[in-house]
Amino acid sequence: MKILQVNSVCGVTGTGRIVTDLYDAAVNNGHDCIIAYGEHKFYNDPGNRKTIEIGTMWDCKMHAVATRLWDAQGFSSRRATIEFLKKVEEYHPDVVHLHNLHGYYINIELLFSYLKRKKIKVVWTLHDCWPFTGHCVYFQQVGCDKWKEECHHCPLTRQYPASMGIDRSRQNYLRKKEIFTGIKDMTLLVPSYWLADRVRESFLKDYPVRVVYNGIDLGIYRPTPSDFRKKYHLENKFVVLGVANVWVERKGLSTFLRLADRLGEEYKIVLVGLSEGQIASLPENVLGLPRTDTPSKLAQIYTEADVFVNPSREETFGLTVAEAMACGTWPIVYADTACAEVVEKGTGTIVTGDFAELEKAIRECRENDICERTEEAATFFSKQRFGQEVLAVYEEKR
Length: 398
What we know:
Elements: E1 2-7, H1 13-28, E2 32-38, E3 51-54, H2 57-70, H3 78-91, E4 95-98, H4 108-118, E5 121-125, H5 169-180, E6 186-190, H6 193-199, E7 209-211, H7 228-231, E8 238-243, H8 253-262, E9 267-272, H9 276-280, E10 286-289, H10 295-304, E11 307-310, H11 319-326, E12 330-334, H12 338-345, E13 349-351, H13 355-367, H14 383-396
Parallel strand pairs: 1-2, 1-4, 2-3, 4-5, 5-6, 6-7, 8-9, 8-11, 9-10, 11-12, 12-13
GO biological process, one term: lipopolysaccharide biosynthetic process
Protein name: Glycosyltransferase
Enzyme class: transferase
């Protein structure tokens, strides 16, 4: 079987590693595979895998400009998409597996028109909510339900994919609804029941929806002792760790800063994934580190932490929670999020979302020493299990 994956990035960040893991699983099981991705220099690491770069950095920049000015995420990159579809025609895949279609690199109208015209079998993994909204990737934080009927007057236009000009959320919603519906054979994969419930309330509800929890490399994410504590003078501290690719507000940065004010000198907040500006503005009792795309280094940091806290209310899976758990570190997450599903499949503490309850849970971990090692609980999230479940979906398309 010939499988074409399409994603904004390749080999780095959560979705980038997912596509390379699936590529390896497919090839190891006798399939042919190609990964097509947005041409973001310095932001891809495909290794020796077969790939197609969609467009150039100039195309990405022009798409980003169109988004900033006209709220046009997904509706630019026409030339790049036309050239890409010529390569798809040459490859003639049996299955096209879509991932993130936002990211300033592809024109969704041209892509789906081609898929419909050629009657290609499609698998689409929804990593967030962008496919069924008029603008945003998440809406929980502002309590917006417009996506259930028809988006308009979007309260999140200034957030990714940010538009500094006009609000076209209504037009985008209606165009997406027309574009994304009508595929004859498409299966939607989602990484949590949290997201599945929302997909079934959206205009994508008529497609079959399958929950397939993401997988991680347990050969890398495992207890990995290092000199991390010594390097940063944390030997006598209770380390409270947070990790994110980008620390936007929904990830809970303000929550960690409140914790730093509340917890005593025996605690140390460590945040990974911050920008230079964010690091420079941190108080002295918070250690800020830039993002690392080296999983083994991240595993060392997870291992050296005492607890891992994810206070985000808008996660469709919670990859960092599974990674921390696999490294033997106790996770604390909020209820009514996909992160809670990860903890329920493994182990950890789930709090309601009240700040006082979160603080109490952290203190109890230190004072009562209740944080057991967790690596065995994380075995469910192996990338081998993940790959086999997705391959089974491909096989159904034969």
